[in-house]
Write a structure and sequence with these properties.
Radius of gyration: 20 Å
Oligomer: single chain
Order of helices and strands: HHHHHHH
Distance between the termini: 78 Å
Helix content: over 70%
Strand content: under 5%
Number of helices: 7
């Protein structure tokens, strides 16, 4: 009787795990549809600052949530891929409903949207899953996420940069920067890990700024 009860408990736990994975995949798919459709249907119709924060940060947050809550690395890969694909499908449908053919999602354009969106969202989702580790690799993953987010904020807020948006500074940029730092802190469980991850993000984001601004003014020698 005891052996039978133990076997049943193992089977019940396995069944709960499988059902949790199924719900996670469904949530990733529906979340991607909702975020992509709302983003495309409301693009250019609300306050400028709201659109600048929604695109791309709502898409990035979706990928981070899906990856961080996955049951395993493989499930994080599948879940974030599913969320990214459903986002693209929703964006295409929303664009069609508006009578256009714009596939621009996450600051992209019609030519580069698919590859860029998939690579960015899936990569961030996998990094978010790695942040669950309690060792230094978790700190590195959280720092890498913070670096990507802060580098994007700097890129959009600085005149002359690749994706510079004059209206992004100061309001939206400050909000996005503070939320990016808060996200790095939230991804780690101890204050030591949080400070290491945040320091890494700040140093690498500063290095990105120096690399981008240094070359044009002659700080960094560039051979053409």
């Amino acid at each position: 009787m005891e052996e039978t009860a133990l076997d049943y408990a193992d089977f019940a736990e396995y069944d709960r795990r499988q059902r949790g994975i199924e719900r996670h995949m469904l949530a990733a798919f529906l979340g991607g549809l909702a975020v992509g459709l709302v983003g495309m249907l409301t693009a250019g119709r609300g306050p400028l600052w709201l659109g600048q924060l929604y695109d791309p940060y709502m898409y990035l947050v979706l990928a981070l949530l899906v990856g961080a809550s996955a049951a395993g690395f493989g499930w994080a890969l599948l879940g974030t891929s599913l969320a990214a694909l459903s986002t693209i499908v929703a964006a295409m449908g929303g664009s069609a409903l508006r009578g256009g053919s714009d596939l621009g999602v996450i600051g992209g354009d019609a030519a580069g949207t698919l590859n860029w969106t998939l690579a960015l969202l899936v990569g961030l989702g996998l990094l978010a899953y790695v942040t669950r580790r309690r060792d230094g690799w978790g700190d590195v993953a959280a720092g890498a996420i913070g670096t990507l987010l802060l580098a994007d904020v700097i890129d959009r807020a600085t005149p002359g940069f690749i994706d510079s948006e004059p209206a992004f500074w100061p309001g939206p940029a400050l909000v996005a920067g503070v939320l990016s730092a808060a996200l790095v802190l939230a991804l780690r469980r101890s204050w030591g890990s949080r400070l290491r991850a945040l320091a890494m993000a700040a140093v690498l984001a500063a290095a990105f700024t120096f690399a981008v601004t240094g070359a044009p003014v002659g700080w960094i020698p560039v051979t053409v």
